[in-house]
């Protein structure tokens, strides 16, 4: 039998474990445990406010959520919002990063001010755009009247309809979050070695060829990170919508929040949260696999 | 692989050691209770109205959670401590945060908060959700009789008094006298029925529409503010939300008539179309800018007369919202109460605080300092002699015609369902009949779902 000696290394590891133990315990209690608890709650009828008894009901909450019209409508609108905003933010962010990567006077100034929209609180951004979209005196209407796109008699109520609200919220989100994309992609671009550009320039590549054969492939890891982060962010859209409308069916998070903290159907809300979490996890796994495959091939 | 299993086993072990099964508690809500949520009788909670002057309460500290964003009440609270020896810790938040904080405290069974604000629509949840102490048998009948009927009913759910009436509030009709004059209408004669309202609106629109002015503006954004206005219309046409068996009936009779009138107004071109994305504050802003001739709103006063904010200072008046037929007037109630948390460890001291809040001294101070209208009926006559604006008696008149929103536990969700359908009808997406029918069915199935499980 092999004899066991407590070496210095064992002592170090033991001490290290002892040091991280408090953090681990706190994280388990305030982060991991609530996730686990919500999974358990999702199998219970647990309405906090109506005095009904708490009872185990198996998969019933999941069945209720998956057959509810409101859930699918909210999902559809959330997916629409996510695809639209992430796509525009990626394209716009890419080109602004490209621009800010060039040498020109005042570059540092522009690099600094571009983060202002991103630094705004989402709610403040919502209030700002809510003001812009006001009928009559709102900037958007005034602009369209000034450009004679709308006749003076026309005075549309932009935020009246929940489906069209998604487009207006998307514009507000694109304005706010494009700088985030820009910053991540700009950091990526700065890491691309100059020699690669010099090499393709010798081969006679122009602007677009450089972009397609050097910048984009080299930037792929940054693009991947930016897209995944933004998908997760966009999918959770909530606070800006509360400024624009009282309709909870405009996003899954809004609907889940209402079920949990306005109606207090805690079991059903937990089920809803788990369904959307699983949904987004699947999306991300697929996405990373596809892009990893592309990268391996490249 | 082996290492992973060890980690997983460790996590499971930690949960077990800490006794965290994760299953919800067997009864819902905050305090200890029987299976129906509340104790059978309010009197069994050991509180006594006459026990609030017990010297043993001196030195206790109670925590009060309510809407107070400018910290104006601090001085008033010092007076309470001086009078009773009970210290008060105030948590002043914005209105939208109150409900979340109350329910979070109830879920955590925390005894940190003793007294909480209770909007009229939360009374049912405070009762069924076992959040607040039932005060029906604690506050003597003769004390209850001193409150305005609207503020008392707003603090009650299903015969249970869940808090002390704190202040009175309802919607009122405000009109711009200048614009009435310009349109050739009598500035001292507002419309008394919705028929007259429509007729006057058309006159105003034809005379002043060219200047970008609308006859009326409403808080018809898809939100609680829309449900509130609908409640006024429903009441004006003699409607009701539910029948005696709790079956929704707002899709027939007065409820249907009310929505039809709202749609008629919207289609007549006299309502500012922006109303569909406005809340009450937006409406008040448009009124102060002189852009709308009439509005329905909560107690406004000082800001309408502040020339820095308002272009119509001194040019407006307020009166009763229209009624129809037998109904003189109807307006949605917004009165609120203060309740005692079931988890509180200082209930008797909290009751002393409630008693003080409902006293003439505090009610008068709050009216004078904050413009909050008293819940005590007798104060209206007493204070009216010093009220130069004359608003006190005018507002009081409307309180007599207050209509409560149904404040059963499911109300918050019903209101979301109803406001969505009202909004569709106002947008012209489906008839009032169709939209209310759908809303009534959804409300009924929701109710059936929560009561059957």
Written description of the protein model:
- The complex is a heterodimer of chains A (298) and B (453).
- With 298 residues, chain A is mainly alpha-helical.
- Chain A has one domain (41-297): MetI-like fold, CATH 1.10.3720.
- Chain A is 73% helix and 1% strand.
- Chain A contains 13 helices and 2 strands.
- Chain A has helices at 8-41, 60-66, 69-100, 107-113, 116-119, 122-132, 139-146, 162-190, 194-202, 207-235, 239-244, 252-261, 266-297; strands at 44-45, 55-56.
- A two-stranded antiparallel sheet of chain A has the order 1-2.
- The mean pLDDT of chain A is 88.
- Chain B folds into 2 domains: 42-169 and 334-392, D-Maltodextrin-Binding Protein, domain 2, CATH 3.40.190; 172-332 and 410-452, Periplasmic binding protein-like II (D-Maltodextrin-Binding Protein, domain 2).
- Chain B is an alpha/beta fold and 453 residues long.
- Chain B has 17 helices and 13 strands.
- A 5-stranded mixed beta sheet of chain B has the order 2-1-3-12-6.
- Helix content of chain B is 42%, strand content 12%.
- The chains are: A mainly alpha (298), B alpha/beta (453).
- At the A-B interface, helix 1 and strand 1 of A face helix 1, helix 3 and helix 16 of B.
Please specify the SSE layout and strand pairing.
The complex is a heterodimer of chains A (298) and B (453).
Chain A: H1 8-41, E1 44-45, E2 55-56, H2 60-66, H3 69-100, H4 107-113, H5 116-119, H6 122-132, H7 139-146, H8 162-190, H9 194-202, H10 207-235, H11 239-244, H12 252-261, H13 266-297
Antiparallel strand pairs in A: 1-2
Chain B: H1 2-17, E1 61-67, H2 74-84, E2 87-93, H3 95-107, E3 115-119, H4 123-128, H5 141-144, H6 149-154, E4 156-157, E5 160-161, E6 164-167, E7 172-176, H7 177-182, H8 194-208, E8 214-217, H9 224-236, H10 253-267, H11 280-288, E9 292-297, E10 316-319, E11 331-332, E12 336-340, H12 347-357, H13 360-370, H14 378-384, H15 391-399, E13 402-403, H16 411-426, H17 432-452
Parallel strand pairs in B: 1-2, 1-3, 8-9, 11-13
Antiparallel strand pairs in B: 3-12, 4-5, 6-12, 7-9, 7-10
């Amino acid at each position: 039998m092999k004899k066991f000696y407590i070496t210095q290394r064992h002592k170090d590891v033991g001490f290290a474990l002892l040091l991280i133990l408090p953090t681990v315990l706190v994280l388990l209690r305030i982060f991991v445990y609530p996730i686990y608890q919500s999974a358990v709650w999702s199998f219970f009828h647990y309405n906090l406010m109506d005095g009904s008894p708490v009872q185990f009901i198996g998969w019933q909450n999941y069945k209720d959520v998956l057959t509810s019209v409101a859930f699918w409508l909210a999902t559809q609108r959330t997916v629409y919002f996510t695809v639209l905003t992430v796509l525009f933010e990626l394209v716009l962010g890419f080109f602004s990063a490209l621009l800010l990567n060039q040498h020109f006077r005042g570059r540092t100034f522009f690099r600094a001010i571009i983060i202002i929209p991103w630094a705004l609180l989402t709610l403040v951004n919502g209030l700002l755009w809510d003001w812009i979209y006001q009928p009559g005196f709102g900037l958007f209407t005034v602009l369209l009247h000034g450009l004679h796109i709308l006749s003076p008699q026309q005075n549309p109520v932009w935020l009246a309809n929940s489906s069209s609200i998604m487009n207006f919220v998307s514009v507000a989100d694109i304005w706010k979050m494009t700088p985030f994309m820009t910053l991540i992609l700009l950091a990526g671009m700065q890491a691309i070695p100059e020699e690669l550009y010099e090499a393709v320039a010798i081969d006679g590549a122009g602007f677009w060829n450089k972009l397609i054969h050097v910048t984009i492939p080299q930037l792929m890891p940054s693009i991947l990170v930016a897209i995944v982060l933004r998908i997760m962010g966009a999918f959770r859209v909530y606070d800006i919508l509360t400024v624009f409308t009282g309709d909870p069916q405009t996003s899954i998070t809004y609907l889940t929040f209402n079920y949990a903290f306005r109606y207090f159907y805690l079991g059903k809300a937990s089920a809803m949260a788990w369904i959307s979490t699983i949904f987004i996890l699947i999306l991300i796994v697929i996405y990373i696999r596809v892009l990893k495959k592309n990268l391996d091939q490249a | 692989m082996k290492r992973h299993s060890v980690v997983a086993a460790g996590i499971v072990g930690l949960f077990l050691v800490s006794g965290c099964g994760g299953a919800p508690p067997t009864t819902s809500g905050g305090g200890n209770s029987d299976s129906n949520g509340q104790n059978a009788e309010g009197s069994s909670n050991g509180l006594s109205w006459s026990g609030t002057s017990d010297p043993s309460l001196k030195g206790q500290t109670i925590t009060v959670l309510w809407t107070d964003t400018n910290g104006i009440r601090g001085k008033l609270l010092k007076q309470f401590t001086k009078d009773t020896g009970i210290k008060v810790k105030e948590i002043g938040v914005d209105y939208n945060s109150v409900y979340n904080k109350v329910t979070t405290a109830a879920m955590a069974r925390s005894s940190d908060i003793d007294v909480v604000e209770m909007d009229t629509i939360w009374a049912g949840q405070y009762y069924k959700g076992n959040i607040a102490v039932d005060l029906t048998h604690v506050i003597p009948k003769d004390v209850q009789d001193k409150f305005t009927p609207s503020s008392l009913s707003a603090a009650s759910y299903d015969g249970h008094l869940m808090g002390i009436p704190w202040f009175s509030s309802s919607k009122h009709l405000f009109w711009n006298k200048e614009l009435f004059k310009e349109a050739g209408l009598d500035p001292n004669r507002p419309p008394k029925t919705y028929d007259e309202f429509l007729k006057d609106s058309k006159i105003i629109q034809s005379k002043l529409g060219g200047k970008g002015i609308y006859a009326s503006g409403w808080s018809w954004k898809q939100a609680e503010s829309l449900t509130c206005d609908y409640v006024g219309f429903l009441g004006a046409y003699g409607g009701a939300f539910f029948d005696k068996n709790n079956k929704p009936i707002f899709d027939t009779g007065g409820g249907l008539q009310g929505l039809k009138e709202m749609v008629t107004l919207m289609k007549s071109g006299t309502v500012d179309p922006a109303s569909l994305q406005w809340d009450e504050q937006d409406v008040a802003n448009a009124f102060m800018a002189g852009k709308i001739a009439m509005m329905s709103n909560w107690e406004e006063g000082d800001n309408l007369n502040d020339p820095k904010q308002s272009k119509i200072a001194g040019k407006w008046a307020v009166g009763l919202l229209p009624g129809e037929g037998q109904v003189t007037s109807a307006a949605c109630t917004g009165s609120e109460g203060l309740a005692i948390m079931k988890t509180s460890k200082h209930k008797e001291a909290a009751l002393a605080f409630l008693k003080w809040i409902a006293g003439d001294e505090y009610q008068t101070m709050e009216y004078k300092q904050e413009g909050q209208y008293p819940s005590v009926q007798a104060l209206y006559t007493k204070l009216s002699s010093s009220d130069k604006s004359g608003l006190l008696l005018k507002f009081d008149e409307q309180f007599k015609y207050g209509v409560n929103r149904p404040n059963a536990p499911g109300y918050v969700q019903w209101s979301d369902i109803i406001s969505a359908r009202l909004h569709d009808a106002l947008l012209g997406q489906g008839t009032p009949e169709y939209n209310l029918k759908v809303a009534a069915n959804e409300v009924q199935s929701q109710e059936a779902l929560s009561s059957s499980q």
